[in-house]
Structures are given as structure tokens and as C-alpha cells.
Amino acid sequence: MTPEQQLVEELHERFEPLVGLLPLSNQPIAWSWIEQAAARLSLQLADPQDAPEAALEILEALDPDEQWWRTPLGMEVARSADVSGRGVTQADAAKILGVTGGTISQLVHRGTLPHSSDGGVDLAAVLERLVRLERS
Q: How many domains does the structure of the chain reveal?
């Protein structure tokens, strides 16, 4: 599945309850707008200049869980999203990277994964590590 296909599917899933509240005659228009938004965001995500903003829009629209980051769309967003200053718990960092909590504890203890300003693990560092692992 391509990141664009995944985005369309996830937006459909996310907004299906809301679109279902519309009169039947308006639902095709709503789905068309959602698909247009997915196409626009996919194009922007592929453009280095527009990618950071598109990545943040995607994160706001989908509010993904930790495992999502290892999906095709999640990896694209991980490469582009400016999440500096955001933190996650060690448990969430472990889920994002697909490792144990003990591994995260060791990485934090060694300073390989820095703390965020809120005392968690720096999400930007976690995503950088995820992208590096994916490339190797």
C-alpha cells in the first residue's frame, strides 16, 4: 500500500462517522473533499519544502497510535514532521521503535535518546532513529 492509499483509507475511517451524519445527498461531496485533501497532502509530503507542514496536518487529522509510525505513511511523516520539543513516554518510544522498554531505558541512560523538555523521551530523536533503522 502506498502512503497516499493509506492516507485515503485512514481519512475515510476517521471521518466516516461524521460523514454519516450528513444527508445522503451530501455524502459523496464530503468523500470527494476528503479524497482531494488526501491527494493534496500526499503531494505536499513529497515536496521537501511543503512536507513538514503536510506531516503536521496529517498528524492532527489522524492522531495516530505508536505502531502507526512503522507503516508506509508513518515512515513518510517521520521523515518530515517537525516534532521538536514533543516528548513521549518510554513505553510509547518502545512501541514506535518496536523494541522493549528495557532497550529504551538503556538508550536513554546512555544518552542516545535524549529527554524532552517535558521529561519524556524526545519524539524527534525517536523518529530519527526509526528512519535510520528503516534505511539499514
A: 2
Q: What is the pLDDT of residue 118?
A: 84
Nearest-angstrom CA–CA distance, 50 and 5: 19
The pLDDT, as a whole number, for residue 56 is 96
Distance CA 57, CA 41 (A): 8
Arithmetic mean of pLDDT, 92-99:
97
> Quick one: 55 and 91 in the same domain?
no
Can you tell me the mean pLDDT for 83-109?
Answer: 95
Alpha-carbon separation of residue 67 from 74, 95, 110 (angstroms): 9, 6, 24
Single out the residue in 12, 33, 64 at which a domain terminates.
Answer: 64
d(CA 95, CA 114): 17
Q: What's the rounded Cα separation, in Å, for the pair 60 and 103?
A: 29
Residue 69 three-state SS: helix
Residue showing cell 459523496: 28
**pTM strictly above 0.85:** yes
Residues 6+ apart with CB under 8 A from 89: 120, 121
